[in-house]
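Quarterly update from the structural biology core.
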Amino acid sequence: MERSTVEVYEAEADRWAQVRAAPRRVEAAVRLAESALPGLPVLDVGCGPGGHFSVLGPSVVGVDAAASILRHVPAGSVVVQADLMALPFARGVFGGGWARMSYHHVPRASLPLALAHLHLSMAVGAPLCLVSQAGGSEGVTGDDDEFPGRFFACWEPEPLRDVLVGAGFDVESVERDGDEVVAWARRARSLPDTVGAGMRLLVCGLNPSLYAADRGAGFARRSNRFWPAMAAAGLVCGERAWDPLHLLSGHAIGMTDLVKRATAAASELSVDEYRAGVERVSRLVSWLRPGAVVFVGLDGWRRVVDRRAAAGWQPDGFAGVPAYVMPSTSGLNASSQLPALVDHLQSASSER
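Predicted structure, tokenized:
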């Protein structure tokens, strides 16, 4: 989250704990605790002085970026100082997520990646309640704020829904309640988008396989030629070459899927799912404006976008940016060999 905001909370920790320690939206916190997966702790994201610990269940882990705030949590609480943008937890360890008025301190273009870290930290099926300041503004507060100098990125329901879907959550509801937006979702057996500002290339697959969803990386089967082709094309290198998070941070290449629902085979998806996915990805591309987008799966593109399309650059682009469509990298697609796939990726990543 924004460093200047953390510094405000560090400096004002005593006063913040005094005036903001009382829990709010207690009924929602109780609902979250009651629906959390048994045997796993609930994560309080941006826990502050720990005002919700007593209602979030018997096992709660709090995380906050401000060390001074954490000194005010109840004795015996389990807390971790960490940035919401890089949660330091193992995969699938939390049975629920409570995030009241915390993620709105993350820049809008950085929220998908922050929620990707949250997705990976939660177990499949774990519920999430996320509450944010409502609105469309983004910026630092002035003297009219009780705690001036804090960064806020406010959200309206539909854009927030898109980000949550992209982050691999099954969204139950996103509704405006006064000056707040309240979202309820569950961690899906899926992959989160790894996207952000400044991408030179966005890779869009059809949908995650169940195997890939469980591994935490797209195109994960050994028989899939995507990652070997990426390496041979010079787009990834090193020990973390298969890591989508590193692909974004180290190479400015993002990843998403037309459909977030994981399946054993793409044939299980309906045309309506594909169409809804095209609309979501179109909004994502229009928002973040990558240098180009490459769609991996010519058959899927033909099914819902252009049934006569050929592999290569598409004449009309996609959502206002250059678009390249290439064949599937699956091992089942024997008609496209590795050298040809390498050529496609090199073409898709080249300057037009």
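The longest strand covers residues 169-177.
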